[in-house]
Structures are given as structure tokens and as C-alpha cells.
Amino acid sequence: MSKPIDMLLSRKSHNKLVAPAPIDEQLEVMFRAALRAPDHALLKPWRYRVFEGEALHELATHMVTAAAHDDPEISEDKLAKLKTKPFRAPMVIVASVVIQEHPKVPEIEQILSGGASVQNLLMAAHFQGVGAMWRTGSLAFSQKMMDLLGFEDKETLIGFVYLGTEEGDKRQARISEIEEHVTRI
Is it the case that residue 173 has pLDDT exceeding 80? Predict the structure, then answer.
């Protein structure tokens, strides 16, 4: 097998990410890869917001505010845990898609393009030795969270990408058998 295929087959999320965060040159490669995702009608619906350093405190505040808004009964313990989430890595990228009206490109295609864009970003991180994990959770569907992040009217959050240096061993994920997911007709 070729080196690129070996790299592709070895990618997995890593949940222990520490400093340093990716450097600017690595980020540029990641974003260049992200912007090469399949994109029907060249709508370029993807948007990325990068949080690192002090900006992680702002993201934590947004998470707590949105969670408290969405669930007024949320416990103080859950809010305290939420406040720590952005600090699971030295950098968090908020990924979103701006849905555009188009006669040939329905909303689902634009969201799928956004997912492909994030996957390209994850692969570019992996190819450069940068640890990454893509998370969603209830805040990814919170309109309050999107408002706090300054989203446009037709913009929707598709995930939080945590980036940093891998620490410790990766958990071994169960490898699916091809036959579990593929039917030859």
C-alpha cells in the first residue's frame, strides 16, 4: 500500500491533546485542505473560527451561557464541566456552514460539503502529526450558541475541532469489517 493510504487508514481521534497547538504553517495546510472539499456549484459554504489562548475563555463562557439558556434547570456541576471543555486542547476550531439558496444545491448537500471539509482538515492535521478530535454535543445544535458566536442568519454549527499535540496512547477503536457496511449488488 502507498504511504498516503497507510496514513488515511491510521487516522483516529485522540482525546488527550496538550500544547503546543498547531503552528501557523500547519494551520494553513489544514485550511487549504479543508477548502478543497467537494462543493457543488462552488458555493464554498464552510466557515471556521479559531480559538486559542485567552480566546478559549471566551468560548467557555459562550458554552456555559448557551447551556444555561437552553436548559434553565442545568446543574452547577454540568455548567462547571462545560466551562472546562474548551481546555481539552490548546486550540478549538468551530466549524460551520452558511446555507445558501441555490436551485441545484439543496441544504443537505451544503452540510455534507461542510462535513467533507472538516474531514479534509482532520486528515491534513493527521498527515502533519497534529492530534485532532471532532466533537458535536448539544451545543452544536444550540441556536443561542450560534448567536453568541456571531453566526449569520443561515449559518449552522457542524462541530468543534480540538487540535493539539497527542499525549499518551490512543484508545484502540473497534475496526469495522467492510461487510458490516458494504453490500455488493
Answer: no
Amino acid identity at 54:
E
What is 73-124 written as a DSSP string? T--HHHHHHHHHGGGGSSEEEEEEEE----SS--HHHHHHHHHHHHHHHHHH
pTM surpassing 0.90? yes
Q: How confident is the model at residue 56 (pLDDT cuts 50, 70, 90)?
A: very high
According to DSSP H, which parts of the chain are helical? 3-10, 24-34, 55-70, 76-84, 107-127, 143-148
Are 162 and 90 contacting, i.e. CB atoms less than 8 angstroms apart? no
CA 65 to chain centre: 20
The pairs formed by 150-155 with CB atoms below 8 angstroms and a separation of 24 or more are 151/96, 152/98, 154/98, 154/99, 154/100, 155/47, 155/96, 155/97, 155/98, 155/99
